[in-house]
Amino acid sequence: MDFQFRPLQLPEDYEAIAKVLNQFWSEPTTAEKLKESDDKLYEIGRTWTDEKGLLQGYDRERLVATNEQGDVIGYAWSWRAPWTEPGYLCNTLVVDTKYRKQGVGHALLQHVAQWGSSLGAATLVSELWDDDADALRFVKQRGFTIERRSFQSVLEIASYDDQLGLDLLLQIQSEGFRFITLADQPGEESEHKLYELYKHTLVDIPGYLGDVPDFTEWRKWYLNVDGYQPDLVLIAVHDDEFIGVTHLLYNTRTQGMYHEYTGVRKTYRGKKIGTALKIQAAQLAKRLNARYVRTDNDSLNKPILSINHRLGYKPLRGHYRIIAPLDKALSR
Predict the structure, then answer these.
(1) Which of 1, 52, 80, 184 is most deeply buried (CB count within 10 A of its CB)?
(2) Which GO molecular function terms does the record list (predicted)?
(3) 272-311, pLDDT tens digit by residue?
(4) What is the total count of domains within the chain?
């Protein structure tokens, strides 16, 4: 099959890229959402190698594959942020299902690997669905190995019993804990307190890579993301300290919610704060008539997986995180 690569033509390509991405992503995106994310990004990259010879800094490469008619049939995006693990490049590579097994994906991967090599990167990292045997075979033939696994699960809100856990919530509140939303206590001071909570909890997530971004970047990429609403950021408070958080995102297209994050300060773990936050998240979804709450959790995050099971989350397919030494990906 004849195909060619070209740089992105924006904003015209957003619609076609979203169409290809939505063949694979569990939460659909739109051209508008892709543009909003792009608007947050740096325009000029800056990278260097540190004293260990590992790539640092930030940059990105994007391109599309088109068929003879000029239709977008594939998309590759390779990037690193200032907080990405040294030496690593993160990658999204998708090919329209009608055009798989015709060399498009291999050529896109080679382009990405050559670009990464020119920067001095050492490792490529990506994700794929654990039930996509063809994709798994493809990446294994090109030097990738499975580094870890995450599970996706969903809570169907129509059947959720919103009386579940009320006794636990009352008990926790009687012990001096309060539950608020970011809408109840808006402003930069609260956002800084929330950032400090994320700083202390992100690094404890099994499989978390890299550094925690600074406040400005955290605000762009962890707080003000697509679907963000201050009243969907649930916060546990003790003596005016933010000690736990659950962040929900609302998808207007599906009328569903994505459970983006739950974290509890280490000194408060074991007190069922995380359970209480997830109960409140389900109750909130019920009040807002959301269709579902979907989430992803690392396979080694036993506490959260246990909470999800008790609340009635049903398992779906999962993700593999895959990594490859860049030189191996180039040589295949």
Answers:
(1) 80
(2) acyltransferase activity, transferring groups other than amino-acyl groups
(3) 999 999 999 999 999 999 999 999 999 999 999 999 999 9
(4) 2
CA 309 – CA 118 distance, rounded (Å): 46
Rounded CA separation 331/312 (Å): 46
Residues ≥6 apart with Cβ < 8 Å to 258: 27, 227, 248, 249, 251, 293, 294, 295
* Residue 52 domain-assigned (yes or no): yes
Cβ-contact 198, 184 below 8 angstroms:
no
Q: What's the pLDDT score for residue 24?
A: 95
Q: Answer yes or no: do 167 and 307 share one domain.
A: yes
The reported pLDDT for the residue numbered 200 is 96
Question: Which residues face 249 on adjacent strands?
Answer: 258
- Cα–Cα distances in angstroms (integers) from residue 277 to residues 150, 282, 309, in the given order: 21, 9, 15
3-state SS, residue 154: strand
Looking at residue 39, what is its pLDDT?
85
The answer to whether residues 307 and 102 touch, using CB atoms and an 8 Å cutoff, is no
pLDDT at 41: 83
User: Do 107 and 147 fall within a single domain?
Assistant: yes
Q: What is the DSSP track for 275-287? A: HHHHHHHHHHHHH
What whole-number distance in Å separates Cα of residue 276 and Cα of residue 262?
Answer: 11
Angstrom distance (rounded) from CA 257 to CA 260:
9
What CATH number did the domain enclosing 242 receive?
A: 3.40.630.30
Question: Tell me, what amino acid is at 296?
Answer: D
Please answer whether residues 252 and 186 qualify as being in contact, where contact means their C-beta atoms are separated by less than 8 angstroms.
no
Q: Which domain holds residue 75?
A: 4-151+320-331
185-234 residue pLDDT tens: 999 999 999 999 999 999 999 989 889 999 999 999 999 998 999 999 99
C-alpha 67/C-alpha 120 separation (Å) is 31
